[in-house]
Specification:
Layout lengths: L1 E7 L2 E6 L9 E10 L5 H5 L17 E8 L11 E4 L8 E5 L3 E3 L11 H14 L6 E5 L3 H12 L3 E6 L2 H9 L4 E4 L3 H11 L5 E6 L4 H9 L1 E9 L12 H7 L2 E4 L5 H17 L10 E3 L4 H10 L7 E4 L2
Helix pairs in contact: 2-3, 2-8
């Protein structure tokens, strides 16, 4: 099989490596593609803790494709089933996954890309946010995740206020159903604008989807008394400080909406399958850039640099 191996900071090679065989309780997937996650950017930059070279296909965890081999003791999956999987070497033509980390894709999704992990992540965050019709929801950071959450929140009848740095992202938020958009430029001007839009009450729900200190600070400022602040951004570059006085005074609920339990991840993917198949969620316009496996480096660079018109990269395999 062909697999990407990251050999150093900003460097990779594509190699032919032995095709793995599934063990008991595992399946092998001939991958159709893999989404490129922003969490890859820190390893791609080559921090001190990163070990190179990576394992073949390493860092790729948003894969989907067709099962081409089944190990022993797998009863509900067959060769030919099209699936999304929680697997972790998906920057390759094939990957191995545990049978209980796979979700079948229905015929309604034939021919459509389906990076299950981030779609499932959005569904899990949305569920934990307890968003309901009539609420005001602020979403800080309109990347792929923020755009999905904007669409989900708007479709249940909330008033979404989207805050993001790029004009293109704000345009996406409008298309996803945001009622108001605010450029992420000045901290105090954003607070004043949200206060104005909410009659001085601020928002029932605030989702921070960036993973940096300033958006986290901003999220707390925009959450009303007894409101709920949801941390959806991936904070992977060190400790954070919080304004505990503000959190105490307003009595806000703070939800860390990241999951590590594979079954909860799979629950989110199942919900995403239903939502996309039924039309309740449509991510198709958010896949803005597609690269071959040989172009994985360009895909990672685009995810880092975010050129105009970029939102989400997919690496696809013929």
């Amino acid at each position: 099989m062909r697999a990407a191996i990251i050999t150093g900071a900003g460097e990779l090679t594509i190699k032919q490596v032995a095709l793995p065989k599934p063990k008991s309780g595992e399946i092998r997937i001939r991958l159709e593609g893999c989404g490129v996650c922003a969490s890859n950017l820190t390893p791609w930059a080559g921090p001190d803790w990163m070990q190179f070279p990576t394992e073949p296909g390493g860092l790729g965890h948003e894969g989907w494709g067709v099962i081409d081999a089944v190990g022993e003791n797998v009863n509900d999956l067959d060769v030919g089933d099209r699936v999304a999987a929680l697997s972790y070497h998906a920057y390759a033509s094939h990957d191995i996954a545990k049978a209980d980390a796979v979700v079948k894709l229905p015929p309604e999704l034939d021919g459509k890309p389906f990076p299950g992990e981030p779609l499932g992540c959005a569904m899990n965050i949305f569920r934990r946010a307890e968003i309901q019709a009539g609420q005001t929801v602020v979403i800080i950071g309109i990347g792929f995740l923020g755009a999905l959450l904007t669409q989900l929140a708007a479709k249940v009848g909330t008033r979404v206020i989207a805050i993001s740095r790029r004009a293109y992202s704000l345009d996406i938020a409008k298309r996803m159903g945001a009622a108001e958009v605010i450029p992420m430029e000045d901290h105090w001007q954003i607070i004043a604008r949200v206060k104005e839009l909410t009659g001085g009450q601020f928002a029932d729900r605030v989702i921070e989807a960036v993973g940096k200190q300033w958006p986290l600070d901003l999220a707390a400022e925009l959450t009303r008394e007894r409101g709920r602040m949801i941390v959806a951004g991936y904070h992977q570059d060190g400790p954070r400080q919080i304004n505990m006085q503000l959190w105490n005074w307003r009595g806000i609920d703070v939800i860390n909406a990241h999951e590590r339990d594979p079954e909860i991840y799979r629950q989110g993917i199942r919900e995403a399958v239903e939502a996309v198949a039924s039309g309740r969620l449509d991510p198709s316009s958010l896949y803005t850039h597609t690269f071959p496996l040989d172009g994985l480096g360009d895909a990672l660079d685009a995810t880092r640099d975010r050129p105009d018109g970029f939102l989400k990269a997919l690496v696809t395999y013929p």
